[in-house]
Amino acid sequence: MKIRDAALGIYTHLEFVTCVTAFLPILAVSHLRHRGDVTQRAPGRWMRRLGRTAGALTPLWNFTIEGEPPPDIERKAHVVVANHPSEADPFLLARLPWDMRWVAKEELFKQPLTGWALTFGGDIALRRGDGTSVRSMMDECERALEGGISIMIFPEGTRTRNDDEMRFRDGAFDLAIRTKTPLLPIAVAGTKGLRPKAAPWIARGHACAKILEPLATEHLTAADVGALRDRSRDAIAAVLPDLRDRYGC
């Protein structure tokens, strides 16, 4: 079984590269056609199709989405936040049934193939610890939200080091309050075992993303950023034990 899974892991790496290479020309054309669109909706849909296709073609991974999205999410933008256990998270979250622009660390945009896909897909780069980059990212997120598309942010800023200690930063919650945009938490479980941090291999397993209840921000102020952050983190933390038990992760 270990030899078979190792062979499937090698296949999965090759399959991912093949998918990105196949989708890049389509992403590039869509990027050029829609370069003036602040929502980047069309390129983003191709980017998520890439994620769904690559995730579906590996026999090692099984993904489940639980919960119902807000009924108005395609008409009203949300700030979407999720815990971030693994590099496999984007493949799972690409299955969420609505359009989003994603915020990702700048280093990812510099990688060959996948970095080009992120750029062409309309995602938003952030250089961590750089105030100018943070302000630029926030401005672009505000324009996208005003244009009517949701924003996806991992508020930990990097992958979770300790499953029981999610350290959310304030940026996503400040953005939601300043723009009076509902905040939508997503709980992710099981992906850490699929693609362990710093590990060269891809493992077999089942992962789940659970859509939680949105949190209103209309009457909140800057003084409420910390409380909104903690409510979101607590909502995610509350459902993770059940998800891990049910999916064996």
From TrEMBL:
Q: Which InterPro entries match?
A: Plipid/glycerol_acylTrfase (IPR002123)
UniProt KW keywords: Acyltransferase, Transferase
The pathway to which it is assigned is:
Lipid metabolism
| Database matches in SMART domains | PlsC
The Phospholipid/glycerol acyltransferase domain, residue ranges:
78-191
Under the GO molecular function aspect, what terms does this record hold?
acyltransferase activity
Q: Which domain of life is it from?
A: Bacteria
Q: Which Pfam families match?
A: Acyltransferase (PF01553)
Q: Does the keyword Transmembrane apply?
A: no
What is this protein's name? 1-acyl-sn-glycerol-3-phosphate acyltransferase
